[in-house]
Amino acid sequence: MKKPFNLLLACFCLLYLASCDKDVVETNAGYQALQPAQTDADAGTWTPLIVSSAADFSVPAPEPAASAAYQQELKELKALTANLTADQVRVIDYWKVGSVLRWNEIMRELVAKHNLPPYQNPDNTYPVPSAANPFAYPVFPFSNPPYAARAYAYVSAAQYDALVMAHHFKNEYKRAAPYQVDASIKTAVPKSDLAAYPSEDAVVAGASLEMMKLLFPADIAYLTKMAEEEKNYRLWSGANVRSDVAAGDSLGRWIARKVIQRAKSDGMGASVGTPELWTKLEDDCNARGETPWMSLETPKRPPMLPFFGNVKPLLFDREDVPALRPGPPPSATSEQMRKELDEVLSYTLHPTRERMRIVNFWADGVGTSTPPGHWNAIATEEFVKKQYSEVRWARNYALLNVALMDAAILCWNTKFYYFNARPCQLDPKIKTLTGVPNFPAYVSGHSTFSGAAAAVLGHLVPERANAFQAMAQEASDSRLYGGIHYRADCEEGLKAGKRVGDYAIARARTDGAD
Question: What does UniProt give as the signal peptide span (predicted)?
Fold first, then answer.
């Protein structure tokens, strides 16, 4: 990294620290109120991702509609909905487009906020974010692509499992919505035929809050505020009584704790490694007669999560990863590598307007929601068109994001297994058009993420399958055009990602929702 860029990065860091206490900006993005084309009332029979069964959760039966307690709740609801303030209307308008959609947006915004590599210490070492002291510099987390992929996956899995369990209890207790019990209650959101207890929004709010407190501990105040707003919106809009919300919130938090148990034992804590282990990766590459990757920043930055490839996947066993890993890249001294280097050099010396558009559109670097977040944004725009139920929104995001997490695991396992050099390291004439990521080249992360995402989205929205494949190809090509990957990195990355996506598709075909 050149010194002027170090100064620029320092400025970014100062701006970032100055903005840490600011809320993420809320937007409505032109979305309409959620009114599902089908309710998916049978979702209580769908297969969860992580939790085992409803027997693990003690959700008590609600009070009967004729009880004094429930009648008092209806009375409270009428008072709450009678004279809404402008701020309450704003909250209703924000959340009524869909709970799962909104939390996905919040996730992407927080990932972007925290996607900033730490600046160096005066002694030319780099500080490491600490979850034990999340407000100290560098603020925890550094939400780089592997961290982000895992975060999206666990939040989505918790939301999906929570909604499946919520549907189970809805079908068990069959409590009618308050506006069905008392026709005088006016609602500010579309009505639903689903049972009201426990509240879908509240179960998602509870699960999301607990998961994101773990993943983004410096933002707990903001996350708590959003969860409280969401639960209140169900009351202010006349959609749920307080006991519906309380039951959903408790159930969501219970589900999240189960998911957190899994997350805390998946091996993420060992993904950074030690200097001795980093050296061994380099020595192993040298022993194979290849040119090892090295950080091209000044001072040299430690590799990004070099042992993330050992994290426990969600779709297959950890022991399956070596079999899924692509074969070796072209040798650094081979004629094939020379051809690939010449191709990269040609692209960087002769950029076109269209290729630069592709490079910039798919860059997804510092300060963005990362490649997994980009694919979540693409998915959101497609899902909105389908008028999905909350539980189907959650299921679809879960399939996408567990595939993206496992794609990150396979990709990082491959990168640090082969530890091969970037094109500009082998040929100094290559000047990249979009920075140089701080990890080995083979295989391309963008390509692996995109191969997985396109496969899953093509299954979920089959009429758009060709369009998703074209997007994945463009995302992959962007890394070749930008001079940071060889053709082999991109082609093998797409194939590896598709292999992971196929696991998610196999699960989708047997989870009871297709």
Answer: 1-18
- 367 sits in the region (left: phi over 0; alpha: psi -120 to 50; else beta) called left
In this prediction, residue 15 carries a pLDDT of 37
Nearest to 159 by CA among 240, 57, 49, 274: 49
Judge contact between 452 and 403, C-beta under 8 A: yes
Which residues, in sequence order, are CB contacts of 231 under 8 Å at separation 6+? 199, 201, 202, 205, 245, 249
The three-state secondary structure class of 292 is: strand
Interval 92-149: pLDDT, tens: 999 999 999 999 999 999 999 999 999 999 999 999 999 999 999 999 999 999 999 9
Rounded Cα distance, 42 and 44, in Å: 5
The count of other CB atoms within 10 Å of the CB of residue 127 is 13
Return the structure tokens found at 348. Answer: 């960087």
Instruction: Say if CB 416 and CB 281 are below 8 A apart.
Output: yes
Q: What is the pLDDT of residues 378-402, one digit of tens each?
A: 999 999 999 999 999 999 999 999 9
Place of tokens 């369990």: 165
61 vs 474: CA distance, rounded Å: 52
d(CA 249, CA 229): 13
Of 457, 437, 443, 456, nearest in space to 494 by CA? 443
Q: Dump pLDDT digits (tens) for 444-453.
A: 999 999 999 9
DSSP assignment of 226-253: HHHHHHHHHHHTTS--HHHHHHHHHHHH
What pairs with residue 427 in β-bridges? none
Integer Cα distance of 321 and 410 in angstroms: 6
Distance CA(364)–CA(366), nearest Å, equals: 7
Q: Which residues contact 407 (CB under 8 A, 6 or more apart)?
A: 149, 448, 449, 451, 452, 453, 496, 497, 500, 501
- CB count within 10 Å of CB 287 equals 9
Between the CA of residue 150 and those of 1, 207, 266, 308, 372, what are the distances in Å?
Answer: 28, 16, 10, 10, 9
The pTM of the full predicted model, rounded to 2 decimals, is: 0.94
Q: Are 142 and 118 within 8 A, CB to CB?
A: yes
- Over residues 290-336, the pLDDT tens digits come to 999 999 999 999 999 999 999 999 999 999 999 999 999 999 999 99
In 3D space, the residue among 224, 116, 128, 205 whose CA is nearest the CA of residue 166 turns out to be 205
Asked if 358 and 477 count as a contact pair (C-beta separation under 8 A), the reply is yes
Find where tokens 């463009």 sit: 474
Task: Domains for the chain: give ranges and CATH numbers.
Answer: 30-263 (1.10.606.20), 272-508 (1.10.606.20)
Contact 306, 498 (CB under 8 A): no
Q: For residue 249, which of 201, 189, 215, 177 has the smallest C-alpha distance? A: 201
Number of Cβ within a 10 Å radius of residue 8:
12
